[in-house]
Amino acid sequence: MTQLHITSVDPLCEDALTLLREAAVEARALYPELFDADAPWPTNAPTPARGVYLIAYENDHAVACGAIRPLDAKTAEVRRVFVTTSARRRGIAARVMEALETRAVSLGFTRLLLETGNRQAAAMALYESLGFQRIPPFGEYVGDPTSVCFEKRIGPLAPQ
Length: 160
Hints:
The chain is of the alpha+beta class.
């Protein structure tokens, strides 16, 4: 039987960087027009104050990740949500998202924002199923024709 546990990690650890690389390979395949063939691979920054970086482990194998970074005192951005191909369609992404939301509430955030690409239908469906609503692009995503952005109010006073 498989065991899934989600834990906070250093975003610069080997598991986090391996998952990020897998996500980048997938993104480059989905959006080849956005990446130069010799573009450097992305890396993670250290976790900021009030930030969180989570990895989901299935039988001690890293299968998913997600992070939040603060945008202001009450708003955090969900980032780096990724599930390995072999672990998809089993509810792991939803569990990571729920863990991120729980952590965000405990850190005093009342609103989550996120961005995904317009070719990622499964991700958009997941976010909508978790109560996120589409919003106009925010921050660095304004003017990016591939960006689809979402928002969710969280915490004890959030609409149910």
